[in-house]
Structures are given as structure tokens and as C-alpha cells.
Prior knowledge:
GO terms for molecular function: DNA binding; DNA-binding transcription factor activity. Helix content is 75%, strand content 5%. It is elongated and about 60 Å long. A hairpin with a 5-residue loop joins strand 2 and strand 3. By secondary structure, it is mostly helical. It folds into two domains: 4-75, Multidrug-efflux Transporter Regulator, Chain: A, Domain 2, CATH 1.10.1660.10; 78-140.
Amino acid sequence: MKLFRIGELAKTAGVSERTIDYYTKLGLIAPEERTEKNYRLYSNETLTRLERIVHMKQEKYSLDEIKQSLEKWSLVSTEEQVASKLTTLELHVQQLEREVNELKPLLGEMKPVQARKMMAGLLAKSAGTMEALKILLENTMM
């Protein structure tokens, strides 16, 4: 398991070290362990939690609301977490379908060569993402 020192975690998450300190003092995140020299080490789970906090801050949630949300999330079973994530993924797929439908008229206005290039790049990325999701789901259901 990869453990991050505070500077590495801050850089990876795109926040300052002071923010990490502040969130740690508030109890939003916690170090996984400490080194012999008393450096705090944070796990990938903490990185995921920190990314969720940053996202919620961007959505204009207060730190108290974020803390309450994270506490509720911690109480949720693994099965419920998976169901929630799958629901979120389904909503993202529906949003992507809507956006593709919005793009269709614009693609129709482009020259055929341009439209094919745009779609080829998009389809390759989408296919890779869908294949990765399929493999993940198959591996977890075994």
C-alpha cells in the first residue's frame, strides 16, 4: 500500500500542505500512520477522501456539511457503497448520452473527415473506459 507524506498528498490532490493540516485538525482526514521521525503518512483511501472533500468544496458545501456527509459515508456498508457508485456511473453514462445527442447536429455540420477524426478519438477512449469497467465488475463478481 502506497503511503503519502503530507507534501506528496497535497501535490497529488492539488491542495496546499496547510489545507491538509487544517483538514486533519478538523477530523476530515487522518494519517494512516507516523514514521519514526513523526511524519504523518496518508493512504490512498485518504487521497480519495480528500478528493471528495475538494469536489464538495467546489460544489459550495460547508466544511460542517462535508464532515457530516463523510461520516454518513463511513457508516455505509461496502455493498451500499458499490451500489451508490454504480448508480453514479449510470447517471454519468446518461449525461454522456445527452451530450452526444447534443453533439450530433454539430457533427453533421462538420466536414466528414473532421467528424470521423473527432469520433474516432472519442470512441477509442470510451471503449477503453467501458472495457475497464467491464473487467472491474467481472473481477469483483467472481
